[in-house]
C-alpha cells in the first residue's frame, strides 16, 4: 500500500483515481513476480518454484486484495505454472470422534466463489484422516483423493516433512507444475535422524527433570 501511495504522489498514475483494483492488485503481482525472478545461484538462475504464503481466513477483508491478485496471477500464468494448496482444519466433534469435513467444504466453496480453485488440500487434524473423510472431501471440493494431504498431530514439527513425503506430496506438486523429475525422490535421511533425535532429547530431559524432583522429595515447577 505504501508503494501505491508513493507512486500516486509522484504522479505515476497520471491523475487517475487510485483503486484497489487494478492499482493495489497490480502492485502485489509485480512484487511477487519480482521476488520470484531473484537469482538463487548469485548470478542469473531464478528459482524453479516460488512459494507464496497467504495467511488468514478465506473471507477476511484484509486479505481480499491479495486473493484477487492471486486470482489474476493464476489466470495470466496458466495452470501449469500455478499450484494452489489450501490449508484447512478437519475437527473432531462429539464423543464418537467423527471427523467433520464441513468446515473445509465451506472454506473451499467460498474460495472458489472468489475465483480460486485449490489443486491440493492440506488438512490439519488431530488424528490421520480416514478414507471416507478423504473421499467426501474429494467429492465436494473437486480435488483428487491423491491430492488431499493430511497433516495430523505429531510429536514435533520436524516430522511434518516426513509425513508429507510419505503421502507423496512432492509428486503431486511436480505433476501439477510439470516439473522435471530428474532430481529424484527427496533425500530425508538426515532429516529423519534429526526428528528422532529431537524426540529422544525431549524424553531424556523430561525423565531427568522427573528424577531430580523425586530425589529431593519436592514438586518442582519448570519453565521452558
TrEMBL record:
One of its GO terms (molecular function) is CTP synthase activity. It comes from the Eukaryota. InterPro entries: CTP_synthase, CTP_synthase_N, P-loop_NTPase. Pfam families: CTP_synth_N (PF06418). Residues 1-179 form the CTP synthase N-terminal domain. GO terms for biological process: CTP biosynthetic process; pyrimidine nucleobase biosynthetic process. PANTHER family: CTP SYNTHASE. This is CTP synthase N-terminal domain-containing protein. It comes from Aegilops tauschii subsp. strangulata.
